[in-house]
Amino acid sequence: xxxxxxxxxxxEGLLTFTALYLKERGYCCGNGCLNxxxxxxxxxxxxxxxxxxxxxxxxxxxxxx
Length: 65
Prior knowledge:
This protein has helices at 19-25, 47-64; strands spanning 7-9, 15-17. The protein is mostly helical. The protein has one domain (7-64). A hairpin with a 5-residue loop joins strand 1 (7-9) and strand 2 (15-17). The protein is globular, with a radius of gyration of 13 Å.
């Protein structure tokens, strides 16, 4: 595994997998990964809806910067 390609370390010190790594893995694990390329398909409700809403809000905020 290569930092920057497969994972990043957040300012909080958490290891976070990249969307590329998760896509290459081939499935959603259901844990609600920050960069899930599968739209959280295996995350149970209501958490899935909350994560999708948060992602949309973050994308909207980035567009206004």
